[in-house]
Write a structure and sequence with these properties.
It is globular and about 35 Å long. The chain has a 6-stranded parallel beta sheet. The two termini are 27 Å apart. The longest helix has 18 residues. It has one domain: Glycogen Phosphorylase B (Rossmann fold, 3-Layer(aba) Sandwich), CATH 3.40.50. With 149 residues, the protein is an alpha/beta fold. Keywords: Endoplasmic reticulum, Membrane, Transferase, Transmembrane, Transmembrane helix. GO terms for molecular function: N-acetylglucosaminyldiphosphodolichol N-acetylglucosaminyltransferase activity.
Length: 149
C-alpha cells in the first residue's frame, strides 16, 4: 500500500537535500512543499505547493505561511511528513503530528557547529529526529546514522 508523503523544505540547500531523498520515496504518493514556485520543474508528475517564504523577523509573512502550510497538511492528510527545514517544515511537522502522521526532521548538513534553531524546536513532536553530524547527536536526540546527503 502506498504511503502518502508530504515532503517539505525551504529554498536553496534545504530543497537540494530534500531532493536527494527522492529515491527513498519511490513508489509512494508524494507531494512537495517549498517556498520557490520555480522548483515545480524539479518534481514533474508530483503534487507541488509553493508557500510564502517567511522568517521569525517577518511576522506577517510568517502568519501567512503558517496558514498556507496548515491548509496543505489538512488537504493532503499525509501518512508521513518529512522535512529538511526550515520554517515551513516546522509547521508541517506540528500539523502532521496533530493529525496522526509519522514525522521526520533531517537537520541541514550546513549545521556543523550546532543544530538549527528550527531543528531544536521540533524535538518534542517528531518521531525521527536526525542530524548529519555524529558530534551533534545526543542520547535524547537527534540521532545520526552516519550518512551525509
Amino acid at each position: 500500500m502506498k504511503k502518502k508523503i508530504l515532503a517539505v523544505a525551504s529554498g536553496g540547500g534545504h530543497w537540494v537535500q530534500l531532493l536527494r531523498l527522492r529515491p527513498a520515496f519511490e513508489g509512494q504518493d508524494v507531494a512537495y512543499v517549498t517556498v520557490q514556485p520555480s522548483y515545480v520543474s524539479q518534481v514533474p508528475g508530483s503534487r507541488f505547493y509553493a508557500v510564502t517564504d517567511a522568517t521569525r523577523w517577518s511576522r506577517w509573512d510568517l502568519v501567512k505561511m503558517i496558514c498556507q502550510v496548515s491548509w496543505i497538511v489538512l488537504r493532503e492528510r499525509p501518512d508521513v511528513v518529512i522535512t529538511t527545514g526550515a520554517a515551513p517544515g516546522v509547521v508541517a511537522l506540528r500539523m502532521g503530528k496533530f493529525l496522526g502522521a509519522k514525522t521526520m526532521w533531517l537537520d541541514s548538513i550546513a549545521n556543523v557547529e550546532h543544530l538549527s534553531m528550527s531543528g531544536e524546536k521540533v524535538r518534542s513532536f517528531t518521531d525521527l529526529w536526525l542530524t548529519q553530524w555524529p558530534h551533534l547527536a545526543g542520547k535524547n536526540g537527534p540521532n545520526c546514522h552516519g550518512s551525509v546527503l
